[in-house]
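Researcher: Please predict.
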Amino acid sequence: MIPALVLLSACQGLTGAMDPEAFKPSENPVTVDSYTRNDRLAQLARAQHPRILATYGGEYSDPKLERMVAKVVGSLTAESDNPNQTYRITILNSPNVNAFALPGGYLYVTRGLLALANDSAELAAVIAHEMAHVTANHGVARQQKEAEEAVASKVVSDVLGNSQDARVALIRNQLSLAQFSRNQELEADAIGIKAMARAGYDPFAAAAFLQSMARYADFRTVTRAKDANLDFLASHPNAPQRIELARRHARGIGAPGTGMRDRDLLLAGIDGLLYGDTPDEGFVRGNQFLHPKLGIAFSVPDGFVIDNSAAEVVASGDGDIAVRFDGVKLPMTTGLADYLRSGWIAGLDVTSVNTGTVAGQEAGFAKAQVEGWQFAITVIRVGDQVYRLLTAAPRTSTQLDRIAANVTSSFRVLSDTQKTALRPLRIRVITVKPGDTVASLAERMVGVDRKVELLRLINALPPGYNLSSGEKVKIITDQ
């Protein structure tokens, strides 16, 4: 891991380049008003709502998707143990697979979770679980934790101000309001499974989707994609015993297949759903990072895994070698050599600072060493934006110069045509035709690795399963 001493400062350039309208909340969100003016818990949750939106990329607006989610929520509330309890459901613009509840009826589900679900019963299982936290009044038992979180947030804010460290610390503590004890989670499972069964859904879908999320978590662990701290299984206990308990609750209600799954409703709702990164964060395509809004791109060596976020891009490979990319706004009057010497690089070798060009753009270069690590730094000016490429390797490594040179030489400014051609990935629902196989449909997917494994995963296809003509499946494409 790159030592924190030498990590670059917050990427104001990347975040500043975003269009604030891109994450504008829906003008007519499909929600149920859950705010009760005299309810202290609801007021507390309402105050947390903007922070949740900030952590998870804002609200995802898609009327077709919202109607589908609203239908599932409506079917559950109609059969609720507490018909007086109302809810506000928000779809979050995040690829992470998560759902959670705040006191007072605030429910959240990410587009990443919706992309993984395969029928309405699985979505109903998740929502019923979160509704159970509200109806079981788990928030009251958590009041002390809420107070501690508020104090911790204030301390972080007072000590670190508005720095990147403060934002990261707050995000890590952001969801303490939404985390429950293991006993509360298991209680919510039991209540939720009964509730979804009363609404007519197959109660066995709860265990099935828990299993899908566990498999997806394993898949992400291998690919090291995104921040697992923002996933469902990071804040919800998951174990084979929990899945078996869910099956046991379902068996106590009836035999498998006695309730509805309503796969067509969910698939129609998620067809066209954004998958993975947004254009504001840039796209990862194999070993390339391409940013249509900033108009730049670069590549990392084969075998490196790219982890992309709005603030930075980090790629890691064998031998503990890593590449970090971000950007800052810099006055044109500030020379790049002076900028390299300005103090933001720990362990800088001042004699290594020099200037040149990269892809026809003004550039600066430097070397640094800190605590057993060596670094190659390149800064590239494109207009008033300066992009920073930092390659890190153990001091004993002989690969630093080669990898840094390859990454730097791959940097390029995209043409208008190239920027227009870049499109985000989406979930598309297609109908299997005669002759189609898992392998042939996987080849139609773009922008993802391990295509066959991922196709089976997002469609919950068991090993050895053969597709049938007329069956509907999800693929990932930029079309």
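Model: The first strand starts at residue 88 and ends at 92.
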